[in-house]
Amino acid sequence: MPCSGILSEYLVVRERKFTVLVKVFPIKLKDGTQDKVEAVVQEFAPKGPGAEDGTLSFRVYRDPAKPDYLLFVEHFADQAAYDAHTSSPAYRDLIAGQFASMIVEFTELDHELVVGL
Fold it and tell me: Rounded mean pLDDT of 66-76?
């Protein structure tokens, strides 16, 4: 018996594949640099991710209970989009340049999108 209505729409959506590259970066900052780092990230967002077609989402979170720490969560159309992002002039100047000098350590975690709304 064929499905109809909401159930058939649900099945069509479940069969769609999301090919999104998700990067998550927990980042420990040097002591006392939170404000400076956030200013660099605020400057970078419109110049880098905001101007890149392949950057689907760029989110940076602070933990109010954990000073000198940021969490980056980024979504890219594919690996080529991520490569373009990390080779842009804005990235080289603001992230690889200024931002990198204010971090203690970071971890790069790749994730696969399971659900997207």
Answer: 95
Kindly state the average pLDDT of the residues 68-92. 96
d(CA 112, CA 19): 8
Whole-structure pTM value? 0.81
Identify whether the C-beta of residue 48 lies closer than 8 Å to the C-beta of residue 2.
no
Over its C-alpha atoms, the chain yields an Rg (Å, rounded) of 18
Measured between alpha carbons, how far is 76 from 23 in angstroms, rounded to an integer?
8
* Spatial contact of 78 and 27, defined as CB atoms under 8 Å apart: no
Residue by residue, DSSP assigns 61-83 as: EEETTEEEEEEEEEEESSHHHHH
Domain boundaries, the chain: 18-112
Task: Copy the structure tokens of residue 113.
Answer: 């999108």
Q: How far apart are the first and last CA of the chain?
A: 29
Range scoring the smallest mean pLDDT among 2-16, 59-73, 99-113: 2-16
At the top level of CATH, the class of 18-112 is alpha beta
pLDDT given at position 4: 53
